[in-house]
């Protein structure tokens, strides 16, 4: 009996505090915080945490293995790059630019900080990247410099973390439309993300880096992007030289042109052509959209949205231009149009179609949600209107018309990069590297331009087959 009483007494002591709502800390009164227009009662926010610094070993002096010691000195940034050989040079340079790299100093100034080591307080002073290291000097850096080897949320996943199987490699290589020693051209399917993040491991850039290196040491790199829901031709560079020229080619503000007239003419002929199915039809059959775009943040900065700039001078904007052409008459409230972007802004075609033309793309619920709510979708058509006979070739047998087409309850995005024309980079690389004006004899016979055409994805083919009977 006495043991039971003792047990209950100990249990009451152990459960003195509630597990659901523990009391506020005794050292501070609860405060009211407001988040998303909702007031909360809780403890005050904690103060700034103490800095977490990492100490490098004392500088050993010359020579460092793998470093050129002919100058007889080693700078601070060279010492950090040698010690953190797995970390990108840009990350190390960024820590120097922000003044986060410090060194133990024998003299103390008013602006210096202190660090405790071996039971003593050591003064620290900021160090520049070009400062010469002395033997025995000890450098302190934030712990964040060692954590940069972990990929951030929106960074590309390193190809070393991916191990695609044979089926994935075969699937990705079947998407390749063209390959030479300078570029790769792929036909991206819908719903495949182009740029990966930490939750996304099957993005095109990460898979291509792991599976499309072929006989190169590194995989190809992205030159431009397509939205996750869109499809079509996408370009990747295979070497550093080709990437530099391709980035220059897809830059909206091109610098001075080359001395080679053939290369300049080929660059002027570069273009992309998209096909899209839109709800409604533009007022004019063809035209040029010149509507600058701005970015705004929604949901406390968690969501980014692109809108037409208001031209009031209060918000940053970027120029955006798109040529368009209507391919045929409006069919059941929809029209096929051709888009040719003259600039490369994020969501440019989707915003221009939805807000500038007033005809959002079918399946674009981000910029055309209200139009989709009022849109009366095309009814299931089984008979050709001109002949009165059932569909035969227009609707392939065994093909489910509900999978993302205009007949589906939730259609997929009907935006496809169908055609791409660009200079033959592999032909002009030797000329551009030597800054010459004429091509070598062996390369003059190759074409100056490359043209690629990609077939539409299945859901757009279904919509095209169902509606092409009405086209004139």
From TrEMBL:
Gene Ontology biological process: enzyme-directed rRNA pseudouridine synthesis
InterPro entries: PsdUridine_synth_cat_dom_sf (IPR020103), PsdUridine_synth_RsuA/RluA (IPR006145), RluA_PseudoU_synthase (IPR050188)
Superkingdom classification of source: Eukaryota
Gene3D superfamilies, per database record: Pseudouridine synthase
Residue span(s) of domain Pseudouridine synthase RsuA/RluA-like: 183-354
Entry's Gene Ontology molecular function annotations: pseudouridine synthase activity; RNA binding
Alphabetized CDD domains for the sequence: PseudoU_synth_RluA_like
Protein name listed in UniProt: Pseudouridine synthase RsuA/RluA-like domain-containing protein
Organism of derivation: Hibiscus trionum (Flower of an hour)
């Amino acid at each position: 009996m006495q043991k039971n009483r003792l047990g209950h007494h100990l249990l009451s002591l152990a459960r003195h505090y509630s597990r659901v709502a523990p009391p506020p800390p005794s050292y501070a009164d609860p405060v009211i915080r407001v988040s998303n227009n909702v007031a909360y009662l809780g403890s005050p926010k904690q103060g700034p945490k103490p800095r977490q610094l990492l100490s490098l070993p004392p500088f050993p002096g010359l020579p460092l293995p793998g470093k050129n010691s002919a100058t007889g000195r080693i700078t601070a940034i060279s010492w950090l790059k040698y010690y953190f050989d797995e970390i990108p040079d840009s990350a190390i340079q960024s820590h120097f630019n922000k003044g986060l790299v410090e060194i133990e100093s024998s003299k103390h100034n008013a602006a210096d900080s202190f660090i405790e080591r071996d039971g003593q307080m050591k003064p620290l002073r900021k160090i520049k990247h070009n400062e010469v290291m002395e033997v025995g000097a000890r450098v302190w850096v934030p712990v964040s410099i060692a954590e940069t080897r972990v990929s951030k949320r929106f960074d590309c996943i390193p190809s070393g973390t991916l191990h695609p199987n044979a089926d994935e490699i075969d699937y990705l290589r079947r998407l390749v439309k063209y390959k030479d020693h300078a570029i790769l051209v792929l036909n991206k399917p819908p719903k495949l993300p182009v740029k990966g993040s930490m939750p996304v491991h099957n993005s095109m850039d990460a898979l291509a880096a792991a599976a499309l290196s072929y006989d190169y040491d590194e995989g190809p790199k992205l030159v431009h992007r397509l939205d996750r829901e869109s499809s079509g031709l996408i370009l990747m560079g295979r070497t550093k030289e080709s990437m530099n020229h391709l980035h220059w080619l897809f830059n909206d503000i091109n610098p001075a042109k080359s001395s080679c007239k053939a290369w300049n003419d080929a660059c002027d002929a570069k273009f992309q052509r998209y096909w899209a199915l839109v709800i409604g039809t533009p007022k004019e059959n063809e035209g040029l959209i010149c509507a600058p775009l701005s970015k705004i943040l929604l949901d406390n900065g968690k969501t980014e949205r692109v809108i037409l700039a208001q031209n009031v001078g209060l918000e940053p904007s970027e120029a955006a231009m798109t040529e368009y052409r209507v391919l045929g008459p409006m069919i059941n409230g929809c029209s096929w149009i051709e888009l040719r972007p003259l600039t490369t802004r994020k969501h440019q075609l989707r915003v221009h179609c939805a807000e500038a033309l007033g005809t959002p793309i079918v399946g674009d619920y981000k910029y055309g949600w209200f139009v989709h709510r009022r849109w009366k979708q095309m009814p299931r058509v089984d008979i050709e209107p001109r002949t009165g006979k059932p569909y035969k070739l227009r609707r392939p047998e065994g093909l489910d018309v509900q999978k993302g087409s205009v007949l589906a309850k939730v259609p997929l995005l009907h935006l496809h990069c169908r055609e791409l024309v660009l200079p033959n980079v592999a032909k002009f690389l030797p000329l551009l590297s030597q800054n010459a004006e004429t091509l070598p004899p062996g390369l003059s016979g190759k074409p100056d331009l490359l043209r690629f055409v990609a077939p539409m994805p299945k859901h757009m083919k279904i919509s095209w087959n169902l509606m092409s009977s009405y086209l004139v």
